[in-house]
Request: fold
Amino acid sequence: METTAMKPIEDYLTQLQDEDYTVRLSALESLSNIGDPATVPAIARLLFDIHFLVVEGAFEALVKMGESALPALHKALEDPAWEVRSRAVEALKEIGKP
Reply:
């Protein structure tokens, strides 16, 4: 049985894959406001998005998720791109768990 509370989350998760980066950004913001830790893996995948604003939005969403985002941020520290590693360090500092 699907609850009405779950339907928006599923819709937002689908929107994270939209071609339009503004749709992805909007979904990120909505998911971070909902704050469901189960959405962290889907949000973390956008740390490697082609659009810089989406990457920033993903980091901001993970910061809002707090400690539930720590595994994803620690994994980002191993990314070959220095920009991703640097932003992951900043996000961990913002959460307060370097």
Q: What stands out?
A: The first helix runs from residue 6 to 15. The mean pLDDT is 91.
